[in-house]
Design goal:
By secondary structure, the protein is α+β, with helices and mostly antiparallel strands. The chain has a single domain, classed as Umud Fragment, subunit A, CATH 2.10.109. It has 3 helices and 9 strands. Strands 1, 2, 3, 4, 5, 6, 7, 8 and 9 form a 9-stranded antiparallel beta sheet that branches. A hairpin with a 2-residue loop joins strand 8 and strand 9. Helix 2 runs antiparallel to helix 3. It is globular and about 40 Å long. The chain starts with a strand and ends with a helix.
């Protein structure tokens, strides 16, 4: 999501460990259409021991001093794996200590959409299901067959984001 100086990430981690929520600006399209470039996300602390209870939710984590906001796909208690909604690309498995928190809301223009209830929860859940299907299809199809399937997912997800 964003490159931070080596000093900034510990400050974010400390704020979240103290129970504070943080707001971060999205600078890539990896979670498009749910999270678009320019959106602000609200990240709250999450207990590492309970991370497996949050499968399907969007998390913020650190990988090689870079901050990422992707969807949590798997967690075995020691390591986790996340993925981009847009392409279904799986991130490498990382230790649960790399997780900073979970995204609980998106701010776009003057509108805040909470992901913990209501339409925001439904939209996030449907994006998760589409992302899982995209990952399954991607694993089964050769690359040259995958492109048309990928674009049909993209068009459908864009329409859902417009009409919800």
């Amino acid at each position: 999501m964003r490159d931070f100086s080596a000093a900034t990430i510990p400050l974010l981690r400390q704020a979240l460990q103290n129970g504070q929520s943080v707001r971060l600006k999205i600078i890539s399209g990896s979670m498009d259409p749910l999270l678009q470039i320019g959106d602000t996300v609200v990240v709250e602390p999450v207990e590492k021991e309970q991370l497996s209870d949050h499968i399907g939710e969007i998390i913020t984590f650190v990988n090689t001093e870079t901050l990422f906001t992707h969807r949590l796909i798997e967690c075995d208690g020691h390591t986790f794996q996340a993925a981009s909604d847009r392409t279904g690309t799986l991130d490498p498995r990382l230790p649960v200590g790399a997780v900073l928190g979970r995204v609980i809301a998106r701010e776009r223009r003057e509108f805040t959409m909470p992901f913990t209830s209501g339409q925001g929860e439904k939209l996030s859940s449907s994006s998760y299901q589409m992302g899982l299907n995209l990952i399954k299809v991607k694993r089964r199809l050769p690359h040259f067959f995958f492109r048309p399937v990928y674009w049909s997912f993209r068009i459908f997800s864009r329409l859902k984001a417009i009409f919800y």
